[in-house]
Amino acid sequence: MEARAAGIDLGLEGRIALVTGSGAGIGRGIAAWLARAGCCVAVNDIDGDRAEESAAGIRAEGGEAKAFVADVRDEAATLDLIERVRWAFGGLDVAVNNVGMNAGLPATPFMEWKGADFRAVVEQNLIATALCCLAEARAMVEQGRGGVILNVTSGETTRPAIRLAPYGAAKAAINHLTQTMAVELGPHAIRVNAIAPGTTLTEQVRKTFPESHVAAILESIPLRRMTEPEELGRLAVYLASDLARCVTGQFLLADAGAFLSRSRPAMPPAGPPR
Ligand SMILES: NC(=O)c1ccc[n+]([C@@H]2O[C@H](COP(=O)([O-])OP(=O)(O)OC[C@H]3O[C@@H](n4cnc5c(N)ncnc54)[C@H](O)[C@@H]3O)[C@@H](O)[C@H]2O)c1
Known about the structure:
Layout: E1 16-19, H1 25-36, E2 40-45, H2 48-60, E3 64-69, H3 75-89, E4 94-97, H4 115-143, E5 147-152, H5 165-185, E6 190-197, H6 203-208, H7 211-220, H8 229-240, E7 251-254
Parallel strand pairs: 1-2, 1-4, 2-3, 4-5, 5-6, 6-7
Helix pairs in contact: 1-8, 3-4, 4-5
The structure holds nicotinamide-adenine-dinucleotide.
Nicotinamide-adenine-dinucleotide binds near residues 98 and 152.
């Protein structure tokens, strides 16, 4: 029997969604799909032109979107962002915390990381996400109508994040935070889940890895393809929607099977017999 997709109520019509860092890449794909599912979308980015461009793209498709410039590593700016979104749209129902990546730094062997750079990566991932989660959860509890929070982490949390030590550690911490929040916010009807993209060829990935490494990654992926930003948008729609209304505290990998073919670290040489 053919599924009647048009007849499925996702429960997202008129819901207010915020996507951080949605002026480009994965965030843009997520914002576009939440709008297609019926959400009014607050497009956040540190770069105003990018935010405006994403919002205009959604409006050109007939959706509702506004751009909100803010640096979500800054607590005051994040609190102000949430208040501006609530004021502009009348609330906040879905929040996608997507800002992350390697703080513009190249992949670096563990022992060569400088403390300040390590801190910058943790700040862009764990701290920015935590600041958003705090402001979003408080707003949702105050509204008293439940909500959905999605944290964008990474397939790197399923294996050692070689040359990306601070990134892997910070994203793994976000997975843990997601579970804790799911337990503490569950009684308020707030669901909290994590989306873990596999390698997605966005601007940041091009900056972080040399082309030869990108080709090697592609070769190791079972589906021989990378994840597309809009595919993560579909996953976000599912998790935000009523289709996933009993799903919370989960970590969903969308990596074209890359997790299954991860390379194992070389075994250490055998020691002398005892
Ligand atoms: N691209 C990948 O292969 C990949 C894989 C796994 C996980 N991820 C995660 O997905 C998320 C998005 O990655 P992407 O590749 O789309 O990145 P991207 O750099 O292409 O886009 C990120 C956007 O966020 C904005 N931004 C950066 N810092 C900000 C800040 N402090 N406040 C507000 N906006 C800010 C940038 O201006 C940019 O428009 C990140 O959390 C990343 O770690 C990406």
